[in-house]
Structures are given as C-alpha cells and as structure tokens.
Amino acid sequence: RINPILGISLFLLLFVLSALISGSIILGYPAFLFFNGKKELAIQIVGWCIIWLVLFLIIFGLIFLSWR
C-alpha cells in the first residue's frame, strides 16, 4: 500500500513533468522558428494550438454538461 503523501507527491511530480514536456513542444518549436526568422509560421503554430485547445475544452465541457 502506498503512503498517501507519497502518492500525492508522485502525482504532482508527473503532472509538472507533463506540463513541462507539453509546454516545450507547444512553445519550444515556435520559439526556435521565431528566432530563425520564420515569425509568421511560429505565430501560426501557436495560434492553431490555442484554437485546438479551446475546441477540446468546449467539446469536453458539452460532454460534461450532457452527462449532468
């Protein structure tokens, strides 16, 4: 049996690691493009990521509301 404090700590550590990896993917490549002179493409990639995240938020919000 896992100690609750250890379980919570492991969960938070994995959550932060996941946020770090996701942030690096979503912002790292566009930053690389931006500093190499491809500013329009970098802004376009970040824009599409924001659009998809908002779309997923709306879809999951509607699913949650329909199950309520």
Task: Give an overview in words.
By secondary structure, the protein is mainly α. It has helices spanning 4-35, 39-67. Helix 1 (4-35) runs antiparallel to helix 2.
Topology (elements, then pairings):
Elements: H1 4-35, H2 39-67
Helix pairs in contact: 1-2
Which structural traits does this protein have?
single chain; flat; mainly alpha; 68 residues
Mean pLDDT over the full residue set: 92
Largest sheet: none
| Share of helical residues | over 70%
Q: What is the molecular shape?
A: flat
Helical element count?
A: 2
Order of H and E elements: HH
| Total number of strands | 0
Q: How much strand content do the residues show? A: under 5%
Q: Helix- and strand-based class? A: mainly alpha
Estimated radius of gyration? 17 Å
Identify low-pLDDT runs.
none
The end-to-end span amounts to 34 Å
